[in-house]
Amino acid sequence: MTTNQYGLDPVLAIDFDQEVERITQRMREILSQDLHRRGFVIAMSGGIDSSVCAALAVKALGPKKVFGLLMPEKDSSSTSGDLGKLLAEHLGIEYTVDNIAAPLEAIGCYQWRDDAIRQVFPEYTTGWKNKIVIAGGIDGQINHYNIVVENPEGERFEEMLPLKAYLTIVAATNHKQRIRKTLEYFHADRLNYAVIGTPNRLEYDQGFFVKNGDGSADIKPISHLYKSQVYAMAKHLGLPDPICNSTPTTDTYSLEQGQDEFYFALPYKKMDIAVWCYNHGKSAAELAEKIDITEEQANFVYQDIKAKRKTTRYLHLEPQMIEKVEL
């Protein structure tokens, strides 16, 4: 794959100075003219998207008008917390650490999840770890999900999840994003700030977010940028190397899990190109040549893009009303 500035494929190359200026100007306009708020609240996972959004917020308003939140729970990796603190200190913003394990425990997040896992692995108990992985899409099959568990001795086991168990696990783990969003809006109300949402274009396009969880926000500054562009933006903004070089993870399950394992048909660099090619009417043959897969696989990827757009349309919908109410 031919690369350009910051290792980007040429089709994704942009003028980063110009883009930073455009985004930060719009952030200021939206904040003052539409939202009527004084600053920004952002949840910082240590991942590339929230890191770039935080940096853009500081560029837009300065560090004193940006408030950061680190919200670990018992399945969070220590790395994400370390990177979140590194970012906050690098940007010079005020932040707080709120561990959300107790409220998650109280509303049954872990219990519902573990009970669902035990439908497949009855022996699953305290000390075991878990994650969900996707299969099928790039092979032309209907996407299905497997549960992977690891016992304290390090032995791993994998089985297909029945639909009911899968839905229960996802519903339970979605509590994590919704509890976090509740805290974000608490601090936003307290400070008269607006909440930043952090999806990139790939995540927004393919519905990789939780409705009324990480999908809820007052402003989404990078939803037009492909994931590869977000990584390049992080380098352009001079963010610390550990953040710029981080691997995209869900940081939701106790076993390490890449986003491509859980949701996308391809690693993000190839998935960016696939969505770009689909958006620009490129043929499956052109996509196949560009990212070094077979034409058959490229067709399957296009089918998967269309299927995810269809099945996640619900996530993008505003509340539906029987009759439009003019305001």
- Number of domain units: 1
**CATH class assignment:** Alpha Beta
Unreliable spans are: none
Shape: globular
What's the number of helices?
14
Helical residue percent band = 40-55%
Task: Evaluate the radius of gyration.
Answer: 20 Å
- What is the CATH architecture term? 3-Layer(aba) Sandwich
Please write out the topology.
Layout: H1 16-35, E1 40-43, H2 48-61, E2 66-70, H3 78-91, E3 94-97, H4 101-106, H5 109-117, E4 129-135, E5 144-150, E6 156-160, H6 163-191, E7 194-195, H7 201-206, H8 227-236, H9 241-244, H10 259-262, H11 268-279, H12 284-291, H13 295-311, H14 313-316
Helix pairs in contact: 1-2, 2-8, 5-6, 11-12, 12-13
Brief rundown of the structure:
Helices cover 48% and strands 10% of the residues. The protein has 327 residues and is an alpha/beta fold. The strands form two sheets. A four-stranded parallel β-sheet has the order 3-2-1-7, with helices on both faces. The chain has a three-stranded antiparallel β-sheet with strand order 4-5-6.
